[in-house]
């Protein structure tokens, strides 16, 4: 069974890689929009193979399919693929977003291939529904914020080209500034809701285990800082205080803090969140 799961992971990676190559090729050649289905179909099948393997993993090992950092990467690649398909579905063009997001999906899937597919000997993690809900919502928030980051980068690139009045490949390939701003806002909204849910379930899980809502772990503190940054973005975006470049930069700062929290803090500084 483990070998079958790993083969499915590899098939998903191959399909994602084909899609990534297609996005790079179509961006450079300005491919017609009617090729959209051909680009997206590989992501659809890759996500399907990954979903099947994640379900098989959960049933066979009787635990959540994201315990441990490497296995978390596999689940994160699936989440990112699903969110990309959902958020960019109605976009004017998904080529520019795919140019950034799909290679990131490939990177996460590639790291996940090397994960040890063993059972985690920690009953608190493998059987607690509060932990499963907490981690699932957290990983969904990471995926949504990653797409918001990609849209914010594209917004700044397009804004710079328009301001320079030298309209070239970037202007021809990207959606309008208004659409990129909307995609950023939509992604941050999804990510913020998921992060809020993740924090709430994490606090409930801590209360059940330890009799207190917070452990004041380094990762908890920086996660709250992250929550405040994206809350500030949503408030400024809704109120109209900050728009355009300022909002895009705020999303980039928030995602940078998230990456620092996910990689460095989890591995080096956190006492209680080293499992993910």
Describe this structure in words.
With 276 residues, this protein is an all-alpha fold. It folds into 2 domains: 1-117; 128-276, no CATH class. The protein has helices at residues 2-29, 36-61, 69-87, 95-113, 123-126, 129-164, 169-173, 177-210, 218-239, 245-269. The longest helix is centred in the middle third of the chain and has 36 residues, at 129-164.
Give the helix/strand layout.
Blueprint: H1 2-29, H2 36-61, H3 69-87, H4 95-113, H5 123-126, H6 129-164, H7 169-173, H8 177-210, H9 218-239, H10 245-269
Descriptive terms for the model:
single chain, 276 residues, mainly alpha, 2 domains, 10 helices, flat
Rg, please?
Answer: 19 Å
Give the total of domains.
2
Structural class: mainly alpha
Structural shape: flat
- Runs in which pLDDT lies below 50 for 5 or more consecutive residues are none
H-E order: HHHHHHHHHH
The number of helices is 10
Largest sheet: none
Oligomer type: single chain
> Can you give the mean pLDDT?
81
Distance between the termini: 24 Å
Quick structural overview:
Helices cover 79% and strands 0% of the residues. The chain is mainly alpha-helical and 276 residues long.
